[in-house]
Design a protein that fits this description.
The chain has about 600 residues and is α/β, with parallel strands linked by helices. It is about 45% helix and about 15% strand.
Amino acid sequence: MSPDGDGVAVVRGIGISPGLAIGPVYYLENEIGEVPRRAVAAAEVEAEIDRLRDALREAEEQFRRQKNASAAGLTEAERGIFDAHLAFYQDHLLRDSVEKRVREQGLNAEAALKDEIDHLATVFDGMDRTFRERVADVRDVGNRVQRVLLQKQQAALVSGCSVVLYARELLPTDTLTLDRSRLLAIVTEVGGEASHVAILARSSGIPAVSGVRRLEAVARPGTELAVDGTKGVVVVAPGQAQRATLDREREAFAVERRRLMKAGAERSGAERERGVTLLLNIENFDNLDPGILQTCDGVGLYRTEFLFMGRQTFPSEEEQHAFYKDVLAHLNGREVTFRTIDVGGDKPLSYLVTPREQNPALGWRGIRLTFDWQDLLIPQLRALLRAAAHGPLKILLPMVTNVDELVKARILIRQLEEDLRRQKLPFGEKVPVGAMVEVPAAALAPEALLKEADFLSIGTNDLLQYLFAVDRNNLQVAGLYQPLHPVALALLKRVIDAGAKANRPVTVCGEMAGELLPVLALYGLGLRRFSMAPVRLAEARTIFRHFTPDEAAAVVRSVEAATSESEVEALLQAAALERVGPGAHAFLRS
């Protein structure tokens, strides 16, 4: 938090939905507060468990009623969020775990529920970003059941004018009760770019900033705030002159964003002419607009972990085979790259017991775990090979460190192909097998990997976190995560160049593949395959429409002498603004 030149308080967070809005702040009090904790006598345990079960049923029924009442106004993405959220109510593992605490620890239902929800939230919070965002679902279920147990009402917006909404954390249940027509902007302490609040905000065109702490210390209820979701900034009580400037910026942003989003929603001939392949990162089709799916070239990263979640046992080979076939059918002949299950370490499954590790992000996970746990890997590889008989399927191995792991995977796949032949089961011949480049050692030796890999996919999120030794979701050190730093670009160029020399495809499937300035940098470095979240397509396409490969390469050459990320960013931003025009501000996050 810092004052600007006029002494106005400026609170910096993380922009999760672009745009600019100005209005009075309204604090949403949606916290449960203190939960009672008491011992339950053995004779009262069953009655307490009955009370818990009744509360779970009532909470689920309340949620269903609210969801159904709001169904007409929900987007496909939001319906997907709430369907996934509903699965937590139906998960017997949650109910059984809370009941176990009541029985074994002699706790009342409220305390047992709180302890289990806190435990699950800690487990999810230790996973990667995609899983980390599910913490909101876990806490939301806990809060709704607690409200039933405690007989508390859920907070809602009071009647009146439109507002900038502030909440520590905006949960799925909260969003069902909000009148979106009155939301000018959203500010939260918790919630990243993949969170449900970010999806809500982006789908509704509402600017949003997360990572804002202790706002109440500088802004009383009703204080006017200017929320810039593009830059991740909240300005408290802007002065008259500043307000006029912000109003002009807001209107200009709205006009340009409408223009760019309209253009970006359509496939451009420039993509094909310039050799660009645009792919999607997804884990299911629930959150995906079918129209968006038709404008891309396929799926560059299909995360298979979600097939393994929300259940009590591993899915069988037959279940997986049917699932992968269905995914290919959705793509109608376009390529799909399935990443084999990436669990373990910081991404556990409730029914897969793994040892506790001091540093799980660097531990027994990804291909390291599945090589050791082949009862998990073999059915998945067999199912993928069989599904490949029905469409262009690629297999991507996560967390590859060296070429020995690829050799081992190739041997196993050949053995499985022989087994399928003997069993007379159809399967795809010569299925491409690739390595996920997210370990710096792999990025420094891509030539060795390419002796065995048919393709490489660069996971920039993890790769650069490991490179800079930074958790980018930790606000205290997030500033050290610098994807446009010259060192980061040099490492990425090494992998891209190795792929070109070996005539093997290289795809970037981290967040850099869908952000305006990083896309320009990667394009200029020679990358032609970009895989991104669906909401990023318009942003990436803005670059391909306005730059030829030679023009992008010239921009990158102009930053070769830079020694810091700020220098690189300034030069890229100047080029983007010159070529795209002021509308580029709709996507800039600096």
